[in-house]
Specification:
alpha/beta, Rossmann fold, 7-stranded parallel β-sheet, two-stranded antiparallel sheet, 12 helices, globular, binds 1,4-dihydronicotinamide adenine dinucleotide
């Protein structure tokens, strides 16, 4: 069938298999152009199918020659419904990896569950022996516990309600968005879903099953961002979860110190992904950030961020971290000149002049690319097998 984009708000309900494949191919080509990185041999990527996780897997495999096991939560096609982009991305990743003789296995299921942890552990035992690097790149809306309790994450403030300029993704107008405060239960639930507990449980399960190498490394991704997004992001419910994630990095390094396990947080740049498009206020900031960073020639997408992380930072030791022990991949985003320019533009931006201050086209380009659309070299008129 001919697959076309069907956009509803911040989500597209279709994905193009050939476009997704091309997207993965382009990312692989970019990583290869950087030359070899020092990634160790066996890598587990939890949240491997889109965004930062997919880019990490590509950097590990095609930059470091690593064997990779990936965990994702994606839907295959059914009838006339296309699969989710992460499903197509992963199929493409595996076929490119096979072509180069690289081991790649992907497990589709709920990473929070013990069942999936057991499936992964068995695969490591049977195929690889031990894992040297665990990348934790989950962005999930909910978590189901072993006893059936479901925690749902929310994107709210933790104090008072917050009103700020926001991009209405339906028509690219600037509107005032008000974000309501969360209840204590909602904060707690968001921490359960997006905090560090499950990361810790993964490391514990791998260590107890003796499938984690001595001196293994693990990295999880975080975001801090500028003040204008703090009430909704860093000081909001999601930020509470990220602070919890940061605490767990310390706890993992401490509790597994006998094995020499080192847990790192990499604070990444803000980018359009399926997860971030859902946050109010943030898409406008991202579009303005794109504008300024592109103008200065320092814009990076997921693969450029992860290429730099794997080549220059992750394996370079403590010298590459800030005073809190975190790797700052947001160094260019947070540069004073960049933030000052955005702050000035933020005061001015309205529906009438939005294209002058915000890279609306760039925002939507990234958005469509995520679902395999509007990618150069892909013939969208063709009938494709979904
Ligand atoms: P994404 O939505 O592109 O990727 C999420 C991944 O998690 C996908 O592979 C998905 O299949 C997987 N997943 C979701 N629920 C799952 C489940 N229950 N079981 C197994 N797999 C599951 O998200 P993105 O943006 O790449 O986020 C990854 C991490 O990077 C998150 O921790 C996010 O907070 C962080 N980050 C994102 C930034 C951004 O601007 N997008 C900036 C800095 C950090």
């Amino acid at each position: 069938m001919v697959v076309e984009p069907k956009v509803k708000g911040f989500i597209c309900t279709t994905a193009h298999p050939n476009g997704c494949k091309e997207n993965v191919k382009n990312q692989i080509q970019y990583i290869k152009s950087l030359g070899k990185n020092d990634c160790p041999k066996n890598v587990l990527v939890i949240g491997c199918s889109t965004g930062y996780g997919l880019a990490s897997r590509i950097a590990a495999a095609f930059g470091g020659g690593a064997n990779t096991i990936g965990v994702m939560y994606e839907k295959p096609a059914s009838g006339k419904r296309t699969a989710t982009p992460g499903y197509y991305n992963t199929e493409a990743f595996e076929s490119f990896a096979r072509e180069e003789g690289l081991y790649a296995k992907s497990i589709n299921g709920d990473a929070f569950s013990q069942e999936i942890k057991d499936v992964v552990i068995n695969s490591i035992r049977e195929d690889l022996g031990k894992i040297d690097l665990v990348v934790y790149s989950l962005a999930a809306p909910r978590r189901t516990m072993a006893d059936g309790t479901i925690y749902q994450s929310v994107l709210k403030t933790t104090g008072e309600s917050y009103t700020q300029k926001s991009l209405n993704l339906k028509d690219n107008t600037i509107v005032d968005a008000t974000v309501e405060p969360a209840t204590e239960e909602e904060i707690e639930a968001t921490v359960k879903v997006m905090g560090g507990e499950d990361w810790y449980e993964w490391i514990k399960a791998l260590s107890e099953a003796d499938v984690l190498s001595d001196n293994a490394m693990t990295v999880a991704y975080s975001y801090i961002g500028p003040e204008v997004t703090h009430p909704i992001y860093y000081d909001g419910t999601i930020g509470a979860a990220k602070k919890n994630l940061h605490e767990y990095a310390g706890k993992i390094s401490e509790d597994f110190s006998k094995k020499g396990v080192k847990a790192r947080i990499s604070v990444n740049k803000g980018l359009v992904t399926q997860a971030s498009a859902a946050i109010p206020v943030v898409p406008l900031y991202f579009a303005m950030l794109y504008k300024v960073m592109k103008k200065k020639g320092i814009h990076e997408d997921c693969i450029r961020q992860m290429g730099r992380l794997f080549r220059d930072k992750l394996f370079a030791g403590d010298a590459q971290t800030d005073e809190n022990g975190m790797i700052r991949m947001d160094d260019l985003e947070m540069r004073e000149d960049v933030q000052q320019e955005i702050q000035n533009a933020w005061k001015e931006v309205t529906t009438e002049n939005v294209k002058e201050y915000a890279d609306i086209d760039g925002y939507w380009e990234d958005f469509y690319h995520m679902f395999g659309f509007k990618i150069e070299g892909v013939d969208y008129r063709l009938d494709v097998e979904v």
